[in-house]
Amino acid sequence: MPQTKIVFFDIDGTLIDMQTKQITPKTVEALHRLQDSGVKLCIATGRSPMVLPKIADIEFDAYLTFNGSLCYDKQGVIFSNPIPHADVLHFIRNAAALGRPVCVSSKDRLAANGTDADLADYFAIANEPVNIAEDFDAVCHEDIYQLMLGCREKDYPALLDGVPGAKIAAWWDRAVDVIPASGGKGIGIEKLLAYFGIDRADALAFGDGNNDREMLLTVGTGVAMENGSPELKAIADAVCGPVDRDGVYWYCAENGLI
Question: What distance in Å separates the CA atoms of residue 201 and residue 125, rounded to the nearest whole number?
Fold first, then answer.
């Protein structure tokens, strides 16, 4: 009989309401009670390490950032999977041909070569400004784990043309995260499960966006938020209540996890 030993949480739309930018007290309570019962808690997000929110006084056991491209705990890096350098440069050229600025993400920097309304609004979800960097070209020569830009789904083929080492992970209809072709939250979770020595059957995950699809399919039980995308809810093992109505808390309570 599977026993939940580890839980992975997306942030935006799962732990934090994208409208209020807040986590509910009941959700914080659920996190504490899970941890008190010995369950490991892990963040699994498209965000970079620099813009991770402090969630109450919770000390998470590990962080899966950049949609799985950089995973670490307090001991150090567990998994690192940057985008091939040539693909980073080619993608930026493709974006420029569409008139789209790009933000590149290294382990320690977020650097953009410009901004537009879509990119600015994308960053605003995390309460962050777009950092337009004078040394953008230099940053591009570092290990880049993720690219971010405003675009529409119709732009995907042009953006990825000649870029075999990258793929798009989208959870919003006006912007995308671009990650390694061999990446994704599912790969990151596989690495973290191996690191902790936990079977996938004993892993649970909560998410709301299409970039959470691989994550929900990789764990033993994948739970989609009621406020999540129809595509994610279609493949989830269960659907819990929405983020603003303590969906994580009530799922855990009703299933004997807390």
Answer: 33
Sheet of strand 6-9, all strands in order from the earlier edge strand to the far edge: 76-80, 70-73, 62-65, 40-44, 6-9, 203-207, 221-225, 238-240
pLDDT digits (tens, 9 = 90+) for 208-256: 999 999 999 999 999 999 999 999 999 999 999 999 999 999 999 999 9
* Residues of the chain scoring pLDDT < 50: none
Select from 161, 180, 199 the last residue of a domain.
180
Q: Which of 165, 180, 195 is the last residue of a domain?
A: 180
Q: 90 with 175, same domain? A: yes
The DSSP letter of residue 202 is: G
Kindly state whether residues 106 and 45 are assigned to the same domain.
no
Same domain, 22 and 145: no
The residues near 210 (Cβ < 8 Å, ≥ 6 apart) are 169, 170, 171, 229, 231, 232
Say if CB 163 and CB 90 are below 8 A apart.
yes
Structural domain range at position 120: 85-180
Q: How many independent structural domains does the chain possess?
A: 2
Neighbours of 146 (CB within 10 A): 28
C-alpha dihedral sign at 100, 106, 107, 108: negative
Q: In this structure, what are the phi and psi dihedrals at residue 97, rounded to the nearest 5 degrees?
A: -65, -25
